[in-house]
Amino acid sequence: MKSLSYLTLLYLCLALLASGCAKTAPMPTCTTAEVVAQDCQPGWYILKLKDDSEEVAGKTGTYVGQLHGGYVTTNNLPDKYKQVGMKVSLRLQLNGSDGPRCTANFMMYPVVKVMSVCGGSEAEL
Questions:
Q1: C-alpha span between 53 and 7 (Å, rounded)
Q2: pLDDT per position as a tens digit, 85-111
């Protein structure tokens, strides 16, 4: 009888652990960005973020990371937005993977991943 109660308690703990791990992270808020230039490696683009991203994140309760405006770089910008001067509203997430391989004379920017285009579908990516 004692082993049955231990076994039941073990399954209950595992079920709680599994349900806690199944929660998904909230979707990042939309941030307005302008395509400034192509980065030092083909396929990478520098984006200038609008300065109110911190204010928007505070109002919605979600936060992308250390993105308070300024410049970032990405390699998965949709093709139709790869023009200098183009302004677009995006959902961005900090990307822990390697950025572009640049020589020492280039400025290194935080690497982000475009999650989706706001007002558009994720199929565009």
A1: 49
A2: 999 998 888 887 778 877 766 677 888
